[in-house]
Sequence to fold (179 residues):
Amino acid sequence: MDLGPFSTISKSPLALGLLSAAIMIPLTAAFVNSPGAHAGTAAASSTQPATYLPSISDMMIGTIQPRHERIWRAEQAGDWDFAAYELGNLRGAFGRLGRAHPMEENIPFPDMIESVTKQPLEDLKGAIDRKDDAEFGKAYDSLSEACNSCHQALNHGTILIGRPTSASQSDLVFGKAGR
Fold:
């Protein structure tokens, strides 16, 4: 059988090996680089930034706790608008926490957060809307107790939340917006 210009290649093992390599290398590279071709593609890629998932503790210390305290500080300063603003931020932070950590200790964490904080947050909103100092104090304490019950349930009872007792180290100025 006459293969034209390929007849010499078919007779030379070196030439046949080079031809095979010329075909296999691009095919292998295409397979290896295709999405989903092997586990860990995204993690192994140097062009993909590493993703960071803050721990529950990171989110509590970085977002939940400061907002909880700022609500207290705002009410103490009589800045009800800022208290309402921070209450909205606190709700959002709890939502992000639950989405970031859907399970904790084999418990659906978003459901736990919702069941523990729903009523205290509603009570706090009512007190803020009515600008009622006494009701606010009760609702704030109720939210703190809800936080503590969650800490107990997750075996973190050493973390105890209450009313701020010392001066804030914050650079936030209350009641000066729009002046």
Summary: The helical segments are 7-11, 13-33, 41-44, 56-76, 80-100, 109-130, 133-153.
